[in-house]
Every structure is written in structure tokens, then in C-alpha cells.
Amino acid sequence: MIEHIVMRDQDVPNIADFGVYMRHGGYEALRRAFTAMTPAEVVALVKDAGLRGRGGAGFPTGVKWGFLPQGVFPRYLLCNCDESEPGTFNNHQIIDRNPHQLIEGVAISAYAIECHTAYIYARGEFATAARTLEHAVQQAYAAGFLGKNILGTGYDLDIHVHRGAGAYICGEETALMESLEGKIGQPRLKPPFPAVAGLYGKPTIINNVETLANVPRILEKGVEWYRSFGTEKSPGTKVFSLSGHVNRPGNYEIPFGLPLHDLIYSPEYGGGMKNDRPVKIVIPGGASAPWLTGEQLDVTLDYEALAKAGTMLGSGAVIVLNDTVSAPHLAYKMDEFFKHESCGKCTPCREGTYFLTKVLHRMTEEALARPEDIGTLKDVYTQMAGNCFCLLGESAVMPIKSALRLFPHEFDELIARGKPKTGLISIDLQPMKRDMSPV
Ligand SMILES: Cc1cc2nc3c(=O)[nH]c(=O)nc-3n(C[C@H](O)[C@H](O)[C@H](O)COP(=O)(O)O)c2cc1C
Ligand code: SF4
After folding, report:
1. Ligand 1 neighbour 54 (Cβ under 6 A)
2. Which ligand has the nearest atom to the CA of 393?
3. Which CATH number fits domain 237-322: 3.10.20.600, 3.20.20.70, 3.40.309.10, 3.40.50.1240?
4. Is 13 left (phi over 0), alpha (psi -120 to 50) or beta?
């Protein structure tokens, strides 16, 4: 049985309750940080542990914190809980099961970067999760772990929970800040980077839920323990959201470096493929990641190995699809998502996603594929790549590029037969997200 870091207490009955959390060592890491460590010492610890951001880029968290300009205040910490990448549902579970662990992580991280106001930005549809967080925040205030003069140290901290309106682009850090400021959620030009000029023009750190949920554990158990998990360059564990045609979809916390094959086939994780059908496509890091094929299951799940294999770990959403799936139709469905979520600010993304989906819809759903369509698709995504204002547009290129590179014959077949091959997509990419009502 592999030891867990982020999900360690998730099976403790009622761990979301403040009293139960306290009986399991809750807020001890915060107490230690606030009373026995300087902010710089906390930053150094997180840096030495090698914690990498789980929001997509895998950027070292302690290094990011170190980018804040000296002596410029106020500063802000934003916890990114927009979690809208298709196939990603681990942040939701972390909050749902153990909200105090996240709040403790946010508070310690705020202390480390010397900020006094932190926001948790929750995806609009996460009504229950936001309410769970708000309740837990109130309990932390009542116990004296938030508010003025925390534990008599003179340190003040407020945490606010803010719900977005359900736009994927608001997970992008600068769009998130625009949204938080009450503006339209569209990305800002970078530089300046948020660490220099972020929320309200002040130095700001944005970190993902899972990233911050690691922080109390690192303080509690130390650098050596943390580094005993994972690989040298990708230390620790990752909560992978496994979905698609596997027998046991769900969130699985495993040390970085486990082979993809084990995540899919091990009885304690994916439990193999439904009806024993072969793996055709794996999208290892959410819809934005280039695809792998069933021949690449030996690749290990860490930032370096996946990059070497031509893809990325991204949000850790592993979508596994069997041989009934049509690659052109999968590309169409993925690009429909990007078209829908394009914020419309820049032309290559706004127009490019529109044209990609228009052509793909005609080729797949209308069964009217033409030989010149391949050239049109390549032309459009070539003009998009490298020319979009933010990474959403760049990501929209990945599905169609992957499909054309790995399964060109399926496009040829569409053209030859003039109708879709088989396997329209009907899988549940987010099996854990059940409270989607925007109440
Ligand atoms: C279109 C788009 C959507 C994103 N959505 C999320 C998201 O839902 N959650 C998240 O943590 N990061 C998301 N990111 C990445 C954030 O911009 C940012 O890099 C991240 O929150 C930093 O946290 P980390 O350092 O802990 O990884 C998104 C990026 C892009 C381009
Ligand atoms: S790339 Fe797309 S999402 Fe990003 S700014 Fe341009 S239009 Fe908006």
C-alpha cells in the first residue's frame, strides 16, 4: 500500500469536521510555522522539498514564491480552484473530503510570502465545494487560526472564498485575477508577471489546490520524507484523475514515476480496460496535452518522462480510450470544448477554434469529408500555433495535431467513405463531479 501525502486522511470518517481534523494533528503544521519559523524558513523548506505546482506547468513552488519583489506590500495569495480542464477532478475531491487541509496549506503559504489576504477562487459550478470551504474557513476563524493576531504572533490573515461564473479561461492565472477584480475574465499580457504586478496591480502568487494541500505535510514530515516519494526532479506524489474506458475511474494518489501501464491496469487503480478492449489513445494531462497511443504505456508518470515522450503531465487528468473511439471525432469533441471556452480576445484562437470545429464537424458528424479538408486543418492550426494570446489557443491545436499525426489513415477513411468510422465519444470524463448545479 503506497503512503499518501495529499489524500492521507481522506478515508478518516468526517475529516471535514473541524474537531476530527484537529484530533488528527490538524493545524499543528500551521502552529509550528507561525510560532517557530520565519517566513523565509518556510519558503526555503518548500523549495528544498522540490514541490512543483500541480496546476499544469509543474513550476517549482518555492522558486515562484521567491520571485516576489522585496519590500513591496500588500501581496496576495490566490488559490486556483477553477479546475475546468476536461478530465480533471482531484481538486474537487481534496476540498470535498478534507477542506481544512487546504485552508491550513493556504494559511501557511500566505505566511511564507508575507501576505495578509488570500482568496480561494472556486469554479462557478462548485456550489457545494465553495459552501464546504466557507464553513471550514469560519471554523478556522473561530478557533483563532485565521483573523487578527493569530496564536498571539501578531500575524493577521483573512481568507475569502470566491466563486467564478464557470469559465474555463478563468483558471488561467491572469484571467482569474481579472475575474476576481470584477472584470471580464480574459487573460492579461505578460510580462509583467503576477509575482510583480498581479491582483490590483500588487505582487501576487497563484497556486493550485493540490499544490497548497501538500504544504502542511511538508512542514509536518520534512524535506527528506517528502523527497523519498517520486523521482529526483519530480518529488512527491500526484493525484491523478483517471477516466475513460477503464474499469475503475477515480482519483489515485501515486508517487511520480509510476508507469502509465500500472495506473491503467493495476487492480488498486484503474483495474484494466472495460471488456478487456485494447488501449488506443491516452491523453495524459487533460485536453491540452498531446496524445499518446496504446504502444506507449511504458512511459512513467513524471514531468520529465512525459515531456520526453512528446506530451505533458499537465493537470494530471489521464483519459484512457479504447479502440472503438474514432480519432477524428475525438479531436472534434475536444476542439468543440476549446471553441466554446475561447474568450474571444485574440483572432487566432477565436477564429481558429471556430474553423477547426467547423471542418471537423462536417468531416465527422455530417459525413461530408473532402480531400482538401486535411490541408485546411493543417493550415488553420499552423496559423494558430505560437500566435495565440494565451495557452488556451495553443492547447486547442493539440487534439487535431495529435489525431492527424497518429491516425492519418482515419482521416483518409473519412474522405474515402464519406462517413464517420465508429465510436462517437460517450464517456464520462469527470466521474467524481456530481455537484455541478450552479445554485
Ligand atoms: C486556459 C488555462 C486554464 C487553466 N486552468 C487552471 C485551473 O483550473 N487550475 C489551476 O490550478 N491552474 C490552471 N491553469 C494554470 C494557471 O494559469 C497557473 O499556472 C496555476 O494555477 C499555477 O499554480 P501552480 O504553480 O500551483 O501549478 C490554467 C492555465 C490555462 C492557460
Ligand atoms: S488564446 Fe483564446 S482564450 Fe486566450 S486570449 Fe486568445 S481568445 Fe482568449
Report:
1. yes
2. 2
3. 3.10.20.600
4. beta
